[in-house]
Fold this protein.
Amino acid sequence: DAGITQSPRHKVTETGTPVTLRCHQTENHRYMYWYRQDPGHGLRLIHYSYGVKDTDKGEVSDGYSVSRSKTEDFLLTLESATSSQTSVYFCAIRGTDSYEQYFGPGTRLTVT
Amino acid sequence: TQLLEQSPQFLSIQEGENLTVYCNSSSVFSSLQWYRQEPGEGPVLLVTVVTGGEVKKLKRLTFQFGDARKDSSLHITAAQPGDTGLYLCAGHNSGGSNYKLTFGKGTLLTVNP
C-alpha cells in the first residue's frame, strides 16, 4: 500500500463543465503522475510532477491542466469537460527505486 | 515513441493450465515492470527486472527479461481463478527519462474454474 487515495472515485458530469480530480499521498514522494486508461489504448500519461509547483506534460495533455501546491496533493483539472474525456483516471507515485510506480485506486469519470 | 507490444491481447484458459504472455519492443529498456490489474482497481506491481537474461520467480509466476533487454515474458504455472486480471508490462527506455514509464496495452487473462 503506497498510501495513495483519489477523490472522487466516481463522477458523472456534463459536457462543458469544469472538473477537478484529486490525488493525495501520505509518504512524501517527489514524483506524481496522472494517467488515463481506455480500452484499446492502455495507460497513457497525461501530466506528471517532479516537485511542488514543478510539472510537465505527458503524451495526452491537451484539455487537461495540473497543479501541485504541496507535496502530498496533485490535482488534475478538466477546464471544460468533453465526452472524449470519459475515462478511468489513475494517479501514481514513483517509489524509492526510480523504476517503480505505485498506483491509486482510480476515478471513473463519465462526461455526458 | 517507444512501444511495448503485448501478446496475446486476450487469453482464456482452464484452471490448472500453464500459460505465457509476452512483451516485445524494438527498443532497449533499462528496466521492465510487470503489473496486474483487477477490475475496478489500480495496477499492482508484481516485479521489476533490470538485467538482460534475468529470471525472477514469484510463487507460480516466472518473469524473464530478454538478453538484449528488448523483450520480456511472464509464465504462469498451474493457473488459478485468482490469477484472472489484466497483466501490463511497462518499461523505462534506455537513454530516456527515468521518470516516465511506457506501458503495453495489456493481456486480459481469464482463468475458468
In short: The interface with chain B takes residues 31, 40-45, 48, 50, 58-59, 90, 92, 94, 97-106 of chain A (CB under 8 Å). The two ends of chain A are 33 Å apart (CA to CA). The mean pLDDT of chain A is 93.
